[in-house]
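PROTEIN DESIGN WORKSHEET
SECTION A - STRUCTURE
LENGTH: 205
TOKENS:
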């Protein structure tokens, strides 16, 4: 009876290991590809791949090492984008400047929307286009959104009203694109999958 029990335990263990091998193999390929991207300085792609690897089997060594890489890369990428967005930005509308359909909601009332970004805060202003008088509308602390430790999202911020905005820059770092991707409510985070509110800002020299 005792030998039969030991045999069943060993059989079960071997079955579990066999079932998990494909996952470990896939995790290993994601990790190795992430390392390759990291060495090529493709940090955004590396972050995405390390994130995937960390979620496959978070309890093993590759999973633990991957989550460390995720944290390191998030910090690195956030510093990089922060260094570029510090300064003043004028809101252009809901589409890129080159788009023929771009609309600037400020054109009709003689008011420009301006944001000033520093290391800790975002200050929102209204500027009279005629008098150039600047009025502070609100101030938001910069708080990065982190749903999960292993999440690859590094440039999303959450505002005091619960809206979550993903931020990105163009190659020249003179156009800031923000898009409302979700909203945090009492019931949790609700993703916005269609008709997302977008804004484009141009850097003010």
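SECTION B - SEQUENCE
RESIDUE ASSIGNMENT:
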């Amino acid at each position: 009876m005792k030998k039969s029990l030991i045999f069943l335990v060993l059989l079960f263990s071997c079955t579990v290991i066999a079932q998990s091998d494909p996952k470990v193999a896939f995790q290993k390929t994601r990790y190795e590809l992430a390392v390759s991207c990291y060495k090529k300085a493709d940090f955004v792609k590396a972050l995405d791949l390390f994130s995937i690897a960390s979620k496959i089997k978070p309890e093993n060594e590759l999973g633990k090492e991957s989550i460390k890489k995720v944290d390191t890369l998030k910090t690195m990428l956030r510093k990089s984008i922060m260094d570029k967005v510090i300064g003043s930005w004028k809101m252009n509308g809901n589409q890129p400047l080159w788009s023929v359909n771009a609309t600037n909601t400020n054109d009709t009332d003689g008011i420009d929307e301006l944001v000033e970004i520093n290391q800790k805060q975002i200050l929102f202003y209204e500027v009279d286009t005629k008098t150039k008088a600047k009025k502070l509308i609100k101030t938001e602390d910069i708080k990065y959104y982190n749903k999960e430790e292993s999440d690859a999202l590094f440039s999303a911020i959450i505002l005091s009203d619960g809206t979550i905005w993903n931020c990105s820059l163009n190659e020249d770092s003179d156009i800031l694109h923000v898009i409302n991707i979700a909203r945090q409510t009492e019931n949790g985070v609700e993703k916005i999958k269609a008709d997302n509110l977008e804004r484009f800002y141009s850097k003010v020299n």
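SECTION C - NOTES
The longest helix spans residues 2-39.
The two ends are 82 Å apart (CA to CA).
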